């Protein structure tokens, strides 16, 4: 498979940041996204209202999975597709521990596999979690250079192996006055590999020819207001 070098995607999130939930009915997430599925707007509106009882849900303009994976506080982007639901919101983790995802979000899975992925380049933080269809937490990891490993539950997935084995060390600039890094790997590099392994796309790095076109994945935008 040929690859095109794309250190930063055109239009990609500046600084590589996201905060996302994927609810999968069992199909391949990458294949669903590659089809540029049509959004079910009525189902999406109902989803957002269920997740935020007591809040007024105000429709705003559409977004995309490329540009709106980390909305401002008080805003949310979501889409119900055939076989897959996507939610982008900052309101996901408690104390940066993905296993503490709110019960309302977890209950929404209803027999589907639930994936959480979030990364924030300003602090080199990455976290992800997976719940099986029966609601069992399969894996939860949260790591940043200031706090180290905040959470590490369940069996690591294959994409993590090289990082824990020390085969993906942080490259330090020899001219850097502090040529050290408090972790044996860079969390954001693992975060991108997690995106590839779980969903079949990345935000920064080498974009493969058959990657989903994230600019074609339409998400409905909402502002969450108080009554």
From TrEMBL:
Domain of life, per lineage: Bacteria
Matching InterPro entries: DUF6928 (IPR053847)
UniProt-recorded name of the protein: Uncharacterized protein
Phylogenetic lineage: Bacteria, Bacillati, Actinomycetota, Actinomycetes, Frankiales
